[in-house]
Design a protein that fits this description.
118 residues; mainly alpha
Length: 118
Amino acid sequence: MIAVFRIDRNRSKAAWQRFRSGFAGILCTDRYAAYADHPISLRQLCWALLKCDIQALVDTGSAAVRVGRWGIRSVTRLIGAWRDFKDLKIDRLDLSLKGLRFRSDFGRWLAAAARGGS
């Protein structure tokens, strides 16, 4: 895996197009609209940014706090599993199993969030 970062004077579609020239890999980003021309099958939302979005639910102090905390715990476990894999504490099979559990937990979280936290 190789991570590449580029700092451009302007955050724009033109800057993205200069950067992506010849790039055909997986893109991990925020939700900036300029990335929409990269194939969806090769895009992933940054989990750290998603965790911040979920934290915003907790910070509202509303009924969303409970479901927000649940989401934070799920994402924290996923990020922890990835760190354990990178640190060779777990193997790919263990990471995959944790990923399957996360999908199930996160699916339930999304359903609860859609119901308004109930």
